[in-house]
Amino acid sequence: MNILFLIILSTMSGITARNKKAFAQSLATPHHFQESTAAANVKILATDFDIPQLQRKRRIWVYLPLDYEQGKKRYPVLYMQDGQNLFDAKTSFAGEWRVDETLNNLAKTQNRSCIVIGIDNGGEKRMGEYAPWDHPRFGKGEGVAYTKFMVETLKPYVDKNFRTLKGPESTAVIGSSMGGLIAFYAALEYPDVFGRAGVFSPSFWHSEAAFEFAKTKRPKAKKLKIYMFTGALEGKAEMVAPMERMAKVLKEAGFTKRRLYTALPKDGNHSEAFWAREFEGAYTWLF
């Protein structure tokens, strides 16, 4: 089992023992023996994409719309964390989000299309890469450098090599748990790049600095839209209360209902299945 997930679980005392056990068991379930479930329009952009800001490399996925090869249309882009879990059960830790199936269905039924760039997490480096701030237990945060990678290296490459709509109103950053924290940080730090943010079960417990950061960055984020939720079963103290506190901070900062969506699904737990279920609603609200 991935030791980093066990460490995270150990910090979340508010989550029920039953949910901790179920989540841990799902992480232990081997997925490598499965056949790939990725749709035909999902490709590996690179297995060793350079992250110069952190002096390491990473696998990057790309989902292209069903009609991408049929014209010269340009598309919005979603930059999504934990790429292993987005499209393919074979590579996922605990089940996939079915992003490709969801978007293919929306393209057929609602004529909605976008490009998705999935960035694999760094395994044992995941906690640090998704943390904009240092943590006394988990160590140095590398999230500032990781976010610069998305902004200064990855997005320019994608815009150069694919038919994208480049503006912030057409560019989203999305993630869950620690990935939700880095998505939140990236959108508020660079609202002129990411005008849309999907913040799923954000780990605001990680740092008190997140709340002061939100207050100080609000003048730059006048057009930013944020879709944010946490499951009621994820733990009151560690997950629910911090999200509700952040929602209050954002509302006091001037985020209206048109720019900030928050929810607390009663049956939501800390799982890929929950985030997969909520992805469609986030995407359709943000765009």
Q: Could you describe the largest sheet, including whether it forms a barrel? A: 8 strands, mixed
| Coarse morphology | globular
What is the class in the CATH system?
Answer: Alpha Beta
**What name does CATH use for the topology?**
Rossmann fold
- Could you report the average pLDDT, rounded to the nearest whole number? 90
- Estimated share of beta-strand residues: 15-25%
Based on secondary structure, the structural category is alpha/beta
Q: Would you identify the CATH architecture? A: 3-Layer(aba) Sandwich
Q: Could you give the order of strands across the largest sheet?
A: 1-2-4-3-5-6-7-8
CATH superfamily heading: Alpha/Beta hydrolase fold, catalytic domain
Count of the domains:
1
Summarize this structure briefly.
38% of the residues lie in helices and 16% in strands. The protein has 287 residues and is an alpha/beta fold. Mean pLDDT is 90; it is low at 1-31.
Description:
The chain has 287 residues and is α/β, with parallel strands linked by helices. It has a single domain, classed as Rossmann fold, CATH 3.40.50. It has 9 helices and 8 strands. It has helices spanning 3-11, 17-28, 99-110, 126-129, 143-161, 178-189, 209-217, 236-252, 272-286, and strands spanning 42-51, 56-63, 77-80, 115-119, 171-176, 196-200, 225-229, 260-263. An 8-stranded mixed β-sheet has the order 1-2-4-3-5-6-7-8, sandwiched between helices. The longest helix has 19 residues, at 143-161. Residues 1-31 have low confidence and may be disordered.
